[in-house]
Amino acid sequence: MVDIFYIVLNVAVLVVLIGLLIRMQQKHYSFSKRVFAGLGIGIVLGVILQVIYGTGSDVLSQTIEWYNIVGRGYVQLLMMIVVPLVMVSIIQSIINLEKSSDLGRMSAWIIGFLVSTAMVAALVGVGSAALFDLNAGEIESGQAEQDRGSMLESTLGDMENQSTPEKILSFIPSNIFQDMTQDRPTSVIAIVIFSMIVGIAVLGLRRKKPEEAERFTKGVNTIFAVIMRIVTLILRLTPFGILALIATTVASTDVAGIVELGKFVIASYAALIVMFLIHLVLVGVFGLNPMTYLKKVLPVLSFAFTSRSSAGTIPLNIQAQKNSLGVDQGIANMSASFGATIGQNGCAGLYPAMLAVMIAPSVGIDPFTPGFILQLVLIIGISSFGVAGVGGGATFAALIVLSSMGLPVALAGLLISIEALIDMGRTALNVNDAMLTGTLTSRVMKKLNRKTFNDKTAIEQETAL
C-alpha cells in the first residue's frame, strides 16, 4: 500500500513537471529552451528518484514503467512515422529533381562523408584507447558479464553463417512490407532503395506518359505535406519525451558499474568530444559558422542522447536540417535515412575501434602497429554499412569488427554495466554526423540556403504552436 502511494506521488510529480513545460510553451518560450529545460529537469528528477529509492527498488522500477508511457511512448510515435516519412520524402525528392544525374552525385557525397568520417572516428577511438591505456585484462568479470559474453558469442555464430555476398544482398528489398515493419537491421536502407526505384520509375514515366506521372506527383506531394504535418505535431512533444527519458535513464543508472569502469567511460566521452570537435572543424572548413551550426543541432542531439535511437531521431533530424540548417529537402531526407544505418561515427567507428585496441593485448597482439591500425580502419569503414539505428547497433558493429580482426568477442561483455551510458553519447554523435553530412553535401552541391542557416529563429517558427 505504501509502495502504491509513492508510485502515485512520483507519477504526479512528472505530471506537474509536464504542466510546467506546457506553461513555458504557452508563454512562448523557444523550442530550444523548452527542450533543454526538459533535459535539465529530467536529470534532477532522476537523481532525486535514485537517491530516495535506490537502483533496483520495486518503487523505482514501477515508477519507471509509468514514466515510459511518456518517454518510450514518444519514441514509438517517432518510430511510427519513420517508414512513411523516409519512403514518401525520398520519392518526392527524386521526382522533383531538376536533373536525374543529381541523384547519383547526391548519394555519392552522402555515403562518402558518412563512411570517411566513420574511418576518422576509428582513428580517434584508437588514440583515446592508447591515451587512457585501456586493457580488457584489468576489468573484473562477474556473472552478468560472463552471461553477456556467452550471448555475444552465440550471436556471432549466427552472423558468421551469413557470407559477405549475403550481407550485401540483405540491403536489397525482397519484401518491402516486411521492411516497413523494420524487421531487419538493414530495413531502412531497403526502404530507401525501394523509394529510389519508385522515384526513378516516375522520372521515366514522365517522358512517356507525362499526364499519369503528373497525377502521381501531385498525389505524392499531397501525402508528403500531410506526413510532414504529422511530424511537426509529434515533434512538439519533444520536451515532454526528453524529460521522461532522461529521468528514467538517470534514475536507473548503475553508479557502481560506472565507478568501476570509470576509465572506459571517460575515454569514451573524451573520444566523442574530440569527434564532435572534428565535425565542427569540417563545418568551418566548408565556409560555415560552426557555432551557428551547433546551436541549430543541439535540440536534435539532446533527443538522440536521451532516446539512444538514431532511427527514432530521423523525423527530428530531417525537420531540423531542412527548416533550421537550410539543407536541400532531398539531401536532408537521404542523409538522415542513410545516416541511421551507414557510417555511424559513434556505434560503428569509435566503439569497435576502442574495443579492438582494448582486447588485442589479451591475446598477445600489439594494437599499435601500422598494419593492425590500417586493417582496423578499413574493416570499420566497410562494416559501417547496415548497422541498426537502435539500441544494440554498436554491439552488432563490434561483433563484426572483432571477429574480422580475429579477436575474442566475449570480452566485449565486460562493459555491460555502462553500455547505456556510453550509448547515449554514441547515438548523439551518430545523429550529428548525419546532420553534418546533409549540411556539407548541400554546400558542395550548392543547394544550401545560407539565409535559413544563419536565421536564428528558423526552427522555432516550425515547431511553435
Q: Which labels suit this protein?
A:
465 residues, 76% helix, 21 helices, globular
Can you walk me through this structure?
This protein is an all-alpha fold and 465 residues long. The chain is 76% helix and 0% strand. α14 (314-323) runs antiparallel to α15 (329-339). The chain is globular, with a radius of gyration of 22 Å. The two termini are 41 Å apart. Mean pLDDT is 83; it is low at 461-465.
Span between N and C termini? 41 Å
Order of helices and strands: HHHHHHHHHHHHHHHHHHHHH
Low-pLDDT stretches are 461-465
Distinct helical segment count: 21
What share of residues is helical?
A: over 70%
Shape: globular
What class would the helix/strand composition place it in?
mainly alpha
- Give the beta-strand count: 0
**Taking Cα atoms only, what radius of gyration do you get, to the nearest Å?**
22 Å
Strand content: under 5%
Instruction: Provide mean pLDDT, rounded.
Output: 83
